[in-house]
């Protein structure tokens, strides 16, 4: 990891992450495979100018599924690493999640 822009891959927007961002002040991002908690915390604080209270990181496993027409064809979605960021009390919300309620 050379820059903070390489740490955060993209925000992860699901029903659960939308609920967490609205009620709990938690935001979910897909991060690079080599990213650590301190790297994610530094990247969020620098890019969005907020105070991070806690960072939880988990590895989401790869999943297999089947195509609809031919049930024999297996498809594999890759695994990824995601980070749940909890902002400190009194911090402003992140701008990229403003309209996602």
Protein described:
It is a single chain. This protein is of the alpha+beta class and 101 residues long. Helices cover 22% and strands 35% of the residues. It is built from two helices and six strands; from the N terminus they run βαβαββββ. It has helices at residues 15-24, 37-48, and strands spanning 8-11, 26-31, 52-60, 63-66, 74-77, 80-87. The strands form two sheets. It has a four-stranded antiparallel β-sheet. Strands 4-5 form a two-stranded antiparallel ribbon. β4 (63-66) and β5 form a beta hairpin. The longest helix is centred in the middle third of the chain and has 12 residues, at 37-48. The protein starts with 7 loop residues before the first strand and ends in a 14-residue tail after the last strand. The model has no long low-confidence stretch (mean pLDDT 88).
Report helical residue fraction.
10-25%
Mean pLDDT across residues: 88
Radius of gyration: 16 Å
Side by side, the strands of the main sheet go: 1-2-6-3
Report the sheet-strand fraction: 25-35%
Distance between the termini: 32 Å
Overall geometry: globular
What is the count of DSSP helices, taking H or I runs of 4+ residues?
2
Sketch the major β-sheet. Answer: 4 strands, antiparallel
**Helix and strand pattern:** EHEHEEEE
The number of distinct β-strands equals 6
Structural class label: alpha+beta
Instruction: List the uncertain runs.
Output: none
């Amino acid at each position: 990891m050379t820059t903070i822009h390489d740490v955060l891959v993209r925000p992860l927007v699901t029903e659960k992450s939308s609920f967490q961002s609205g009620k709990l002040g938690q935001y979910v991002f897909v991060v690079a495979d080599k990213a650590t908690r301190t790297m994610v915390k530094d990247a969020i604080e620098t890019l969005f100018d907020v105070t991070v209270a806690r960072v939880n990181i988990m590895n989401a496993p790869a999943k297999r599924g089947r195509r609809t027409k031919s049930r024999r064809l297996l498809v594999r979605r890759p695994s990824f690493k995601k980070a749940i960021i909890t902002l400190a009390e009194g911090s402003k919300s992140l701008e990229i999640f403003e309209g996602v309620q």
